[in-house]
Amino acid sequence: MKDPYLKPVIFGGLFITMLSVVFAPGIFLWAIVGGYITVRLAKKLTKETIPLLEGLLLGLFSGVIGGTCLDVLTVISFKSPENQQLLIRTLEKNWPREIHPPANFHDILPSIFVTTCIFVVLISILFASIGGYIGTVISKQTKKIDS
Asked: What is the pTM of this model?
């Protein structure tokens, strides 16, 4: 049995990933647009109105794929010692004066990566779900106008 939602979800997730790689601070916007695109593509493939719950789930799953792909790319890119040293120098330079810095910044890198990865996935899921909601609402509005 073929799932008509699989391709839109994968496309929406990869859309979030690609645009976030180009301009990372825009992850909020990219996730919203990725969730929206996922719902619109699913509507075109199924030629049916997408219920609200399904629209939210489509956005959620595209956010999971987008956030996970971003996390994998981040971990791969920071496997190189040069990128790790760049991150450590940035941490040392921008560490808050009120907080005592750790003795070795290299020891806290794993916890920084885990925390960052969790936030990236949560941000992607939340905002892609918002995009899925927007896509569902707009799809219903255009159907009413077309009728």
From this structure: 0.84
